[in-house]
Design a protein that fits this description.
Blueprint (H helix, E strand, L loop, with lengths): L1 H37 L2 H19 L14 E8 L3 E7 L4 E10 L7 E8 L2 E2 L5 E4 L4 E10 L6 E7 L3 E8 L11 E4 L4 E6 L9 E8 L2 E4 L9 E6 L2 E6 L9 E7 L4 E11 L5 H78 L1
Parallel strand pairs: 1-3, 2-9, 10-17
Antiparallel strand pairs: 3-7, 4-5, 4-6, 4-8, 8-9, 11-15, 12-13, 12-16, 14-15, 16-17
């Protein structure tokens, strides 16, 4: 009986202790609730966040894994390399999870393994170095890249040691129908500049136009300058009409095809000339003809003067030669006979004087 009373006392004491603990817990919870309701909203959020992390850590729950590639479409590009190098161009118009795969056929060097790694624009990609084993006479290296903006574009290279390399050049679709020669128009007139994508290229979201301003591009706002510009976009093509041309409009104009991942640019050169510009070649030809005719006339005149001088000198020679020959012969005979005649006369005079003596 005494033992039973002691047990009852212990039970009553334990019950009282339990009631006291329950009451203390209830008072503590009430105090916490009162304190929480009196706290600012920012502190309340911080407290809930801390409690949430603590509970997750205590219970052992883990957050769902984050998809590193997002919800982008996937694409795979594979290259079989049999030589030392290869370049593959890939046009990207939107965000994509792009898997690049390189397969290099062993060139018979006998190596069973090689170090493969990746580069982006000439810089090694961290944690991309792996040891590749030869499988069916090929080394295979692949990696998935998240292409989500314009900075993701560029040159991706897979390398097999120092033996072989494959370059993947990622860029937005190029604009076709690029003019090599400038578009020529007259001052005061208007001109239409056209850019368009090829039929096999995707359609851009929109088109933009720029004009060169030194080394920069200045976007053209046709709404702000309707008297100067008008832009018409039609799917894969765009037209820019420029009014009231001046000599200052002789610059480069750029059209931009805007895609979800970036913008592709092309340029056209506009050359504004005056109405007298086409006459310059004609004037140059006329001047050349005049110079040529003048040279021919001068040459003919000099030749005629020379021929006249030759004729005059020939006539003088013809007039002077006959008297010279007729006078010489009598003189020659005279000089030949005169001494003999004189000597004969002297001899006759001498003989006559001797006879008289």
């Amino acid at each position: 009986m005494q033992q039973e009373s002691e047990d009852e006392d212990e039970d009553e004491g334990g019950g009282r202790k339990g009631e006291l603990l329950h009451s203390a817990r209830r008072d503590a919870q009430n105090n916490i609730i009162i304190i929480v309701t009196m706290m600012p909203a920012s502190w309340m959020l911080l407290l809930l966040a801390c409690c949430g992390r603590g509970n997750a850590k205590t219970v052992g729950q883990t957050l769902p894994p984050v998809d590193p590639g997002g919800h982008f479409p996937s694409d795979v590009r594979s290259v079989l390399l049999k030589g030392k190098s290869h370049t593959d161009k890939i046009e990207v118009s939107g965000a994509v999870n792009l898997t690049l795969q390189c397969n290099w056929t062993d060139d018979g060097n006998g190596a069973d393994n090689v170090t493969g790694y990746w580069r982006k624009d000439g810089q090694d990609i961290a944690n991309s170095h792996v040891t590749l084993q030869l499988d069916n006479q090929q080394f295979q290296l692949q990696r998935m890249f998240i292409i989500k903006d314009e900075e993701s574009l560029g040159r991706y290279s897979c390398l097999f040691g120092k033996e072989a390399k494959v370059d993947f050049i990622l860029a937005v679709p190029h604009i076709g129908d690029v003019r090599d020669k400038p578009v020529v128009s007259y001052a005061g007139d208007s001109v239409v500049l056209v850019c368009k994508m090829d039929d096999n290229k995707p359609k851009p979201k929109t088109w933009l136009w720029f004009r060169a301003n030194g080394t920069d591009k200045e976007q053209i706002d046709s709404v702000a300058e309707p008297q100067k510009y008008q832009i018409k976009n039609d799917g894969k093509a765009t037209k820019l009409q420029v009014y009231n041309l001046t000599m200052d409009d002789s610059v480069l104009f750029y059209c931009g095809a805007v895609f979800a991942i970036g913008t592709a640019f092309s340029h056209l050169e506009l050359k504004v000339i005056t109405i007298y510009e086409p006459l310059k070649p004609f004037v140059a030809i006329v001047l050349e003809v005049l110079v040529l005719v003048a040279a021919i006339l001068l040459f003919e005149r000099s030749q005629s003067k020379k021929s006249q001088a030759q004729e005059a000198s020939g006539n003088e020679v013809a007039n002077t030669e006959p008297p010279t020959t007729t006078n010489v012969e009598p003189l020659t005979t005279t000089t030949a006979t005169t001494p003999s005649g004189e000597s004969n006369g002297l001899e006759e005079n001498t003989s006559a004087r001797q006879r008289k003596a």
